[in-house]
Amino acid sequence: MLTKRIIPCLDVQNGETVKGINFVNLRSAGDPVALGKRYSEEGADELVYLDISASIEGRKTFRELVSRVAQELNIPFTVGGGIKSIADISALLKAGADKVSVNTAAVVNPHLIDEAAKAFGSQCIVVAIDAKAVEKKWLLTIYGGREQSQINALEWAKELQERGAGEILLTSMDHDGTKNGFALELTAQMSEMLSIPVIASGGAGTMDHFADVFTIGKADAALAASVFHFREIPIPQLKKYLQEKQIPVRI
């Protein structure tokens, strides 16, 4: 059985890790490379770096950061945020990222996923799905959660797999930031339906939540931010706990 992955997520603005709630009241959490190294040493399996700087200068700063991360880290890392084209993907992979995460751009231009998978290989292409429960259906939200679409999240995930996506990063907008647990039913539905890995995101608050998303939710990986940044859940303790629950993890 494949081991389940624990993935800290770092939001980056102009070269610094930031923390906040819904991108409000952002404050620095320090150097993203140093924080990434700490997570690597603590036993994180992978990292995700999200560029939340919108400016051109921010993009340049982010590429430089990706190069620094690649030189210092010995675990795989994914980068995302504002990726819109094959050129964007190419630049970040050349800078040293192992994978890229695309979200709204895939909705605007689904052929981008086909082209990216052919150009770089499915293993490099992660597609993020931000889903919200609307009248008993899970529908896609886009543009950082600001716009509600009528696209069914489960059907979209199936299409993405067919187009060549290598992984799905699934976030429940209803659970995100609540620390009340992941969207288990949605995650299980998607995990059972797809043959590619599903990374669950949104709602981690306790070690039990991680155990639940791996067992009930059938997720391949679990992503979280604040519980790791604030050391509310130390990664070594989390992995020991999961191992005691008979959940396969890399120690």
Describe the 3D structure:
The protein is an alpha/beta fold and 251 residues long. The chain has a single domain, classed as TIM Barrel (Alpha-Beta Barrel). Helix content is 39%, strand content 28%. The chain contains ten helices and twelve strands. The chain has helices at 32-42, 56-72, 86-95, 104-108, 111-120, 153-163, 184-193, 207-215, 226-229, 235-244; strands spanning 5-13, 16-21, 24-30, 47-51, 77-80, 99-102, 125-134, 137-142, 147-152, 167-172, 198-201, 221-224. Strands 1-4-5-6-7-10-11-12 form an eight-stranded parallel beta barrel, surrounded by seven helices. The model has no long low-confidence stretch (mean pLDDT 92).
Q: What does the secondary structure layout of this molecule look like, with pairings?
A:
Layout: E1 5-13, E2 16-21, E3 24-30, H1 32-42, E4 47-51, H2 56-72, E5 77-80, H3 86-95, E6 99-102, H4 104-108, H5 111-120, E7 125-134, E8 137-142, E9 147-152, H6 153-163, E10 167-172, H7 184-193, E11 198-201, H8 207-215, E12 221-224, H9 226-229, H10 235-244
Parallel strand pairs: 1-4, 1-12, 4-5, 5-6, 6-7, 7-10, 10-11, 11-12
Antiparallel strand pairs: 1-2, 2-3, 7-8, 8-9
Short description:
With 251 residues, the protein is an alpha/beta fold. 39% of the residues lie in helices and 28% in strands.
Beta-strand portion reads: 25-35%
Overall pLDDT: 92
Q: What is the CATH superfamily classification?
A: Aldolase class I
| Overall 3D form | globular
Q: At the third CATH level, what is the topology name? A: TIM Barrel
Q: What strand line-up does the widest sheet have?
A: 1-4-5-6-7-10-11-12
Number of strands: 12
Q: Helix proportion of residues, in percent?
A: 25-40%
For the report, how would you describe the main beta sheet? Answer: 8 strands, parallel, barrel
